[in-house]
Write a structure and sequence with these properties.
alpha+beta, 13% strand, 6 strands, Aspartate Aminotransferase, domain 1
Length: 209
């Protein structure tokens, strides 16, 4: 449940609830009370849920937060490394279990990334922060990573984002990797070594080191 908390020194907090007192007996607020209200102020269900969550965190001895932070860091670091590898101007910034897609430069249609991720089943409010939670399974995290990478690749393919050109191989014709190897080009047009195919006489197959 969404919860907001006002906290501070007793001098200031007592002005909101009157200090230590309770309903049902002859106790009264010990200081003057300032009226304030809101939909969920002192909401019984929200208070019960908050207490239960705090007690669980205390009993868990910080394991829950530690695991969440590790999952967040691992996902964010992997996606940032992916962006650097393919030359996409993004990175995933994070703190504890909070993470956010951050752009390193502006592009007119950059927000299309979030629409593409939604089409792959991952909803992120455009440019807003996200949170890893215990409700996210390893499969959920894998889905997020896959949707992000596929969306980036699609935007780069459509030239909506810059990308790093694939490095061209420098092959020395005078030094084949194995006897009878000859130079050629693979299906992507990149130079490569080819060797006789043992399964098809007169045919060649790409050499695998």
């Amino acid at each position: 449940m969404p919860v907001g908390v006002i906290a501070g020194k007793r001098t200031y907090m007592d002005a909101l609830d009157g200090g230590p007192w309770q309903y049902g007996d002859d106790s009264v607020p010990t200081v003057g009370v300032t009226y304030f209200a809101g939909t969920f102020v002192r909401h019984p269900l929200a208070l019960a849920a908050s207490k239960a969550a705090l007690e669980y965190l205390k009993q868990d001895n910080n394991k829950l937060q530690t695991q969440l932070n590790l999952h967040t860091a691992a996902m964010a670091d992997e996606l940032t490394a992916f962006c650097r590898e393919v030359g996409a101007p993004l990175e995933i910034r994070y703190f504890s279990s909070l993470w956010r897609v951050s752009w390193l430069e502006d592009h007119p249609l950059q927000d299309l990334l979030f629409a593409m991720m939604r089409s792959r089943g991952v909803h992120i409010l455009d440019n807003f922060p996200c949170f890893m939670t215990t409700a996210h399974s390893q499969q959920d995290i894998a889905t997020i990573k896959s949707a992000f990478k596929e969306s980036i690749a699609e935007m780069q393919e459509a030239e909506l984002l810059p990308r790093r050109a694939a490095p061209r191989m420098a092959l020395d014709p005078a030094h084949p990797p194995t006897p009878n190897a000859r130079l050629g080009r693979d299906k992507d047009g990149q130079p490569a070594w080819f060797v006789p195919d043992p399964k098809a006489q007169g045919k060649f197959t790409k050499y695998q080191a």
